[in-house]
Design a protein that fits this description.
Layout: E1 10-14, H1 18-30, E2 34-38, H2 41-50, E3 55-59, H3 67-77, E4 82-87, H4 91-99, E5 104-108, H5 112-126, E6 139-142, E7 145-148, E8 153-156, E9 159-161, H6 165-176, E10 182-183, H7 184-192, H8 200-213, E11 223-226, E12 230-233
Parallel strand pairs: 1-2, 1-3, 3-4, 4-5
Antiparallel strand pairs: 6-7, 7-8, 8-9, 10-12, 11-12
């Protein structure tokens, strides 16, 4: 087993290129994970339904149904983390992946070592280890909105809100820093740990959070836009 301090996971790799799937699988196995490779979208959905894994590595271009549709169907049933594989420059597809709940992406051609590190990071977040150097204990509350850090669970007026690991991390970061405005670049660095990247990723996740948390997502009261800067979390008045 490689130098991976985190508990291993069961991972399904979905890629119609058998060579790519084999290379990815070998690196993930070296990192301690159990890996199953499948080569089309329908088979992936069947296998995941039979035995839901801890994470899915999902190529966008698949025979039968594409990766976006597979991700959408996964999100309808399970909160399983998804790392998408996209061709270099497919920004539209990448953003579409984030829109339907992908947790991260890696562009082809990619370093298998980088992919293994991304998988490790997404698994850690999904398991509740949360943001770096932040103890995940206790509860953050804002009136009827409650984040149970130990359970990695968000509720609004007692109703469970299903968030992806990235959405959860973004919400926790903003709630831990109320009334403080952050640029998209700062959020990309603090929440994604990316020193560079597409800031529209942040925009998409903010929109998804608003759709899940705001009474009227078009007139947000919690996650507000600070024009010319970025976003700020505004606690509800007591």
């Amino acid at each position: 087993m490689a130098n991976n301090p985190d508990p291993p996971g069961r991972i399904v790799v979905v890629d119609d290129d058998a060579t790519v799937a084999d290379v990815v699988g070998r690196y993930l196995v070296r990192d301690g994970h159990t890996v199953e490779c499948v080569h089309d979208g329908y088979e992936a959905l069947r296998r995941i339904a039979d035995q839901p894994p801890d994470l899915v590595v999902l190529d966008l271009m698949l025979p039968g149904i594409d990766g976006l549709e597979v991700c959408r169907r996964l999100r309808e049933r399970w909160p399983i983390p998804v790392v998408m594989l996209t061709a270099l420059g497919d920004e539209t597809d990448r953003l579409a992946g984030f829109e339907i709940g992908a947790d991260d992406y890696v562009t082809k051609p990619f370093s298998p070592r980088e992919l293994a590190m991304r998988v490790r990071s997404v698994l850690r977040r999904a398991r509740g280890s949360g943001l770096p150097d932040k103890p995940d204990q206790g509860v953050i509350t804002d009136r009827e909105l409650t984040v149970n850090l130990a359970a990695h669970e968000v509720r609004a007026a007692g109703r469970l809100i299903q968030l992806t690991s990235r959405e959860y991390d973004l919400l926790v970061f903003l709630m831990r820093n109320p009334r403080k405005a952050f640029t998209r670049e700062q959020l990309l660095n603090e929440v994604w740990s990316w020193t560079f990247g597409d800031t529209s990723t942040v925009t998409v996740h903010v929109r998804r959070l608003r759709e899940k948390l705001e009474a009227d997502p078009t007139l947000p009261k919690r996650i507000v836009t600070v024009w010319g800067v970025g976003y700020r979390y505004e606690p509800e008045p007591a």
